[in-house]
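To illustrate the input format used throughout this study, we show a single complete record. The first block contains the structure-token representation of the backbone; no residue identities are included at this stage. The design step must infer an amino acid for every position from geometry alone.
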């Protein structure tokens, strides 16, 4: 960030008003999973996004068959714009 990276940070915080948010790398410790920690996180975050004028948000990489991860977005009526899949193939020589 030195010597001029702080200028971009200040411009983003105070001058430029974004219409989107990127929610990358949101994770919960395994011993807290299933206890509503994500609900508490989004209960605080969504009103803040509404106040800031954020119109849409993009999450980090999620597998399309990860039902537990995808079910948390159902109340927000998500639109899928990217698909993530993993394939495995045995390579025999």
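Output of the design step:
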């Amino acid at each position: 960030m030195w010597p001029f990276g702080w200028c971009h940070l200040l411009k983003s915080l105070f001058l430029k008003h974004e219409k989107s948010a990127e929610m990358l790398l949101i994770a919960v410790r395994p011993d807290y999973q299933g206890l509503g920690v994500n609900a508490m996180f989004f209960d605080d975050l969504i009103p803040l996004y509404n106040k800031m004028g954020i119109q849409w948000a993009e999450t980090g990489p999620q597998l399309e068959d990860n039902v537990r991860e995808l079910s948390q977005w159902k109340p927000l009526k998500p639109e899928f714009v990217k698909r993530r899949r993993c394939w495995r193939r045995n390579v025999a020589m």
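Structural context for interpreting the output: Residues 37-52 form the longest helix (16 residues). Residues 28 and 34 are 9 Å apart (CA to CA).
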